[in-house]
Structures are given as C-alpha cells and as structure tokens.
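In the present case, backbone shapes were mapped to integers, as reproduced here:
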Amino acid sequence: MIDLNELAKMLKMKRKESGLSQEEFAEEMGFTGSYISRLENGKISPTFKSLERISEQVGIKAKLFFG
C-alpha cells in the first residue's frame, strides 16, 4: 500500500524528470499549479478522481492506495 507522503514524493520526482514546472505539469492533468504545489508539499489530499489522474501520470495503479 502507498501512502500520501509517498505519492507526493513520486509526483514531484515525475514532474522534475519531465523537466516541467508545477504549472506545466498541472496543466497536463487538468489541475492548477497551486493544487500540484499543495499536493507535493503534503498540505492537501487528492480526491479519488484526482488520485486516479495522478496515478496514471506517475505510472502506478490507484488501487495501491487502498488496503
């Protein structure tokens, strides 16, 4: 099972590997840059729908977040 802190790290790593700013990365997924910033810093938790999009972007299955 993957926790939200791990998701935040994976999201940031994937974004940096892509060479994208938070704004550019967010746009690819239909989010705002501030939303991605708050996710990467662990200030918010994604909704289930957002988690599905994020999971696809970082290359993991959303079901890994649920035990």
Notes: The two ends are 6 Å apart (CA to CA).
